[in-house]
Structure formats: C-alpha cells, structure tokens
Design a protein that fits this description.
The complex is a heterodimer. By secondary structure, chain A is mainly alpha-helical. Chain A has 5 helices and 2 strands, in the order H-H-H-E-E-H-H. The radius of gyration of chain A is 18 Å and the shape is elongated. Chain A has 2 domains: 11-78, Orthogonal Bundle (Arc Repressor Mutant, subunit A); 79-121. Chain A has helices spanning 11-24, 37-44, 48-60, 78-104, 109-121, and strands spanning 64-67, 71-74. Chain B is of the alpha/beta class. Chain B has 2 domains: 3-215, P-loop containing nucleotide triphosphate hydrolases (Rossmann fold, 3-Layer(aba) Sandwich); 219-287, Alpha-Beta Plaits (2-Layer Sandwich), CATH 3.30.70. In chain B, 38% of the residues are buried. The chains are: A mainly alpha, B alpha/beta. Chains A and B meet through helix 2 and helix 3 of A and helix 6 and helix 8 of B.
Amino acid sequence: MNHKLQEDQPIFLQIADVIEKSIVDGNIKAHEQIPSTNVFSKQYQINPATAAKGINLLVDQQILYKKRGVGMFVTEKAFHVILEKRKNRFYDSLMVPLLIEAKRLNLSKDQLKQWIEEGLDDSY
Amino acid sequence: MTVIKADQLTKSYKGEQALDALTVQFEGDKIIGLLGKNGAGKTTLMRLLAGHFKQTSGNITINDQEPFNNYFLTRDICFIQENNNFFEKFKVNEVIQLASQFYPNWDEEEANQLLKTFQLNRKQKINALSKGMLSALGIIVGIASHAPITIFDEPYIGLDASYRSVFYDKLLESYQSNKRMIILSTHLIDEVSRLFEEVAILHEGKLHLHEISEQLKDNHWLLRGKKETIDQETNHLNVIHSSEFLGKKTVVVYDTINEQHETIEYDKLSLQQLFVYLTKEEVAQDGQ
C-alpha cells in the first residue's frame, strides 16, 4: 500500500481511497484484515484520528466491518460497493472535465466518438 | 482531560503588546499545531502556559488553575523551547536525571531508546553538543516526560530532514501508546501539518483561526476562471486573496461553497499556502 499523499486533498479521504484501491486491485480480499489506525498513522506520518476518520468512512459505507478487539476487515460486498461508487463518480470526475476540454478545443462530436470507440476496442 | 482556557489574555513587554486580549480554548488529548508569523505571540502564549511569567491582564487557566508560580501544575507541563533549555555545564546524563525526577510520568526506557536513536551519549557535555544534538536532547526530554501537556516551540533548529522525520515518527509512536495534549509550534508547516488534529493560528497577538485540521480543507477553496464569472460567484464570499494573470482571475476564499459553477476550476491549498494567504499583511488590510 504505497501511495504518496497529496497536500491539497483531505487526508482522511486519501486514506479511504488507498484502502479502496487495494480492495479493487485485489490486494486485500473479503474478510481479510486491513492495517490498524496506528499502522496507517506511522506509515504516512499522520495523526491517528485522521487515519481513523478515513477507516470509519468505509465502515459507514459497509466496505469495512469491525471485529471487536481484533480490528477492521473487508466486507463480503466491499468490491461491489466500491465499483458502484466509482461508476457514479466517473461521470463527474472524468467525463465532465473531458467534455469541458473538448469544447475548449472545439473537437467535433464525431472525432470524440471515434476516439472513445477506438479506445474501447484497444485493450487498455 | 486537559482543558486550557485563555480569556482576554494580554501580555505587554515595555508597552509592546505580544498578546492582545487573546481568547482561546484547547481541550483533550490532541496534537495541536500552533501557527503564526514571527511576532504573532506564539512563544508568549506558550511561556504563559508554562508559568514562566505572569500576564499583564486577562486570565489563563489549565484545568481551572493558574500556571504561574504553581509547582504542582508545572510538573504536568513539559515546555521545550527553541534553545537554552538546559544548563550549559551539565552533562546529558544530568539533564536526563533531573528531568526524570521532575516529571512524575517520566519514561526512562523510552528516554534510553531515544538517546540511542538520536545517537546521544550520556557522558557528553551540554556545551559541547552541536545545535542539532541540543535540539535532539530537547525532543528526547519532551517525549520521555510523558507530561499531560507537552509543548514544543520550534524544537528542531539544526536538525536535518532525516532526524526531523525520526522526530515525527517517535512523537506519533509515543502519542499513540500514551495519549496526551501536545502543542507544537512550527514554521515548517508542510512537514508537520498531517500530525495535527487541530490548528490554531495567531496573528498580531489575537486568535486568527482555531479549527480541526480536516475541517480547514473543507472551509476554503481556490477558484480560477474568467474575471466576470469569478467576481459574480464570489462577491458574497469571504475572499482572502485575489490575483489576475493572463486574463484569468484567481481567488482564495475562506468560506464554504455548495454549488460549483461549471466554467470555474476549483482547487484546494496546502495548510502552508493557506496559512500564508490568511496571515499576509495585504490580507489584514483588506479585512479592515
């Protein structure tokens, strides 16, 4: 789980994101334990309360669950919850900037369509 | 739980006001960043907390007690200053022994480990230590004191980046195993901002801002776009900085924004950048 934190984003969201990425990439699977708040705090030199906030956010979203006295674990449906969440975010965070830039460059509809089709056919 | 209250706290030195009716409250076992430009009053506030001298007017209390001339309270406060922390003729060993007798929660094992980590020898004389090693000794005493209130005022003069990183690691480690209030004053904001749970900014002897660190990120925005659009979107907001370049206007607002305009770029600043915008003189004048 190596990933450099950005200064201009809330740290707790970045911690949540690091965990989500490792779940989506298959590095941690359902019912496996994630590192503790203290380990996150040490790894990234951040306040443990901030790490806890990021982890609790994922508990609220049913991506993680708590085993009392043991630690935090990945839920059965974590993978799907994250995928759905990312699909919803896709339009706002990627499509909107893409469209704004396309308008700025005066790109035609056909050109855009063609690129998207080509891109989907190539196996990215 | 520790509660520090400053109420209308004023301290003047020969007519110069270092603190000007400062009112602020810190509570809980948190790591708190105390920021401010040179001369903002940070050191004065920390010295008043440590009971070094008495205020000119107003009140300062720690758990409802006044720190000045209060032996029982000062044992619970470990204040590490930028320099002159230790008597020059002592040896490292004597400093450690004295501290271990003064602070009731002293952790000798942790002190030994830290001496090793920072490669300090107990037999060395204080006046023979380099600046960096003197800072390291201050850090060791501060951490091993386990004082319920530990205050570091720019504790790492002369310490290189690698040892500073060790300091952050050790401070976090110690804090996690033994939660207490830690107040850290620094100019190296980008390096340590992630350690802070709360941030207080002093400006000209007054409290400029006191906020939960993560909240600060929510409370400000950097906006970039066409001048007219920016002006229209920000005229009712608290603008703390604005500039124009290449036909685009950039403003920093300290405010919340619920709806984003589609032709404006929205961004966040680091704590250090935000601090600069909040405390620059032009800003103070704009606000008047």
